[in-house]
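PROTEIN DESIGN WORKSHEET
SECTION A - STRUCTURE
LENGTH: 345
TOKENS:
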């Protein structure tokens, strides 16, 4: 006759073994949970840093664009502010930002704390953040913090523009509005080249009206109207002759691809247009011979057009106007007018 089995006689696990096995499995489960959770947080941090780097690179490139018409411009403060605003919620401190000016070939030409160098066409920004881990730190040997970083490069580019603007601006001694007895140069000649007069940015000019006697049009025939048919395939720079007309203008023939841009066939009122700017240069007088009417044109600028009456329009000079365009690289820092800010990496 057999008695009850001894606790050690069966093949089942002992209570002490179960405790040990549970501890081992629990550690593995916590480790897996910690890895999944902390990796997810790090991936979120990586996305946040990329967004911050992209936004900061855009901001830095805008500063490069502004340097075309203003001296002593630096991108560092703007880049840092934008990167900080787009930081990561779990970060233990504000992100660390590294910024360098770059050329078209992405070669570094100095830190963004300095003023924009002439060779710069954009910026390269790297944003780094450090955040605490949440589960991995309880695992023996697990890290207490994790770091993520992201890099973005943005360039300033010049869009390919043709001369289909409805008006052509006499860019020297340009009539101001509403006091039409005063005038100001939109362009100044500096060191042998024409440059935008920064004092003219934000000013409103009379760009279309009856008999605007400017740019040496001695017969009082200049109204500020561009010959859109003659100019539609022309680009500037480089400098060349553009046609003007003594007829009438009804609308713009090409949509301006930017904020508040004038629409093709739409009214020329409270909208932005790219207008060719002309001067009387040495060796390039105004041509006014019958139907052959031409003016020496330097480049384009963006103007906010307002219709005063059916035959009178004013234009507020906008300086560097950011447009949506996929043109290639080739920014020249002395250029004035519409520009593109584009992420390239």
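SECTION B - SEQUENCE
RESIDUE ASSIGNMENT:
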């Amino acid at each position: 006759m057999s008695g009850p089995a001894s606790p050690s006689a069966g093949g089942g696990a002992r209570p002490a073994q179960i405790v040990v096995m549970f501890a081992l499995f629990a550690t593995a489960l916590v480790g897996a949970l910690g890895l999944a959770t902390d990796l997810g947080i790090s991936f979120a941090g990586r996305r946040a840093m990329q967004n911050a780097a992209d936004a900061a690179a855009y901001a830095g490139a805008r500063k490069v664009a502004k340097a075309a018409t203003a001296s002593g411009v630096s991108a560092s403060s703007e880049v840092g502010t934008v990167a900080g605003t787009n930081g990561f919620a779990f970060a233990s401190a504000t992100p660390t930002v590294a910024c360098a000016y770059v050329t078209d070939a992405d070669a570094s030409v100095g830190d963004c704390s300095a003023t924009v160098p002439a060779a710069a066409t954009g910026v390269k920004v790297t944003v780094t953040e450090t955040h605490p881990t949440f589960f991995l730190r309880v695992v023996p040997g697990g890290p207490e913090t994790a770091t993520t970083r992201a890099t973005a490069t943005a360039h300033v580019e010049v869009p390919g523009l043709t001369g289909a603007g409805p008006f052509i601006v006499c860019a020297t001694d340009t009539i101001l509005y509403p006091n039409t007895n005063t005038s100001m140069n939109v362009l100044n000649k500096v060191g042998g080249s024409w440059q935008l007069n920064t004092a003219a940015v934000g000013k409103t000019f009379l760009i279309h009206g009856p008999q605007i006697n400017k740019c040496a049009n001695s017969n009082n025939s200049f109204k500020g109207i561009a010959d859109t048919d003659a100019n539609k395939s022309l680009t500037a720079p480089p400098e060349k002759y553009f046609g003007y007309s003594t007829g009438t203008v009804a609308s713009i023939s090409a949509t301006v691809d930017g904020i508040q841009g004038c629409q093709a066939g739409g009214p020329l009122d409270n909208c932005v247009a790219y207008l060719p700017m002309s001067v009387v240069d040495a060796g390039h007088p105004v041509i006014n011979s019958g139907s052959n009417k031409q003016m020496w044109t330097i480049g384009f600028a963006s103007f906010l057009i307002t219709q005063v009456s059916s035959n009178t329009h004013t234009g507020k000079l906008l300086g560097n106007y950011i447009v949506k365009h996929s043109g290639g690289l080739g920014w020249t820092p002395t250029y004035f007018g519409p520009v593109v800010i584009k992420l390239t990496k």
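SECTION C - NOTES
The helical segments are 15-66, 76-85, 228-231.
The radius of gyration is 32 Å.
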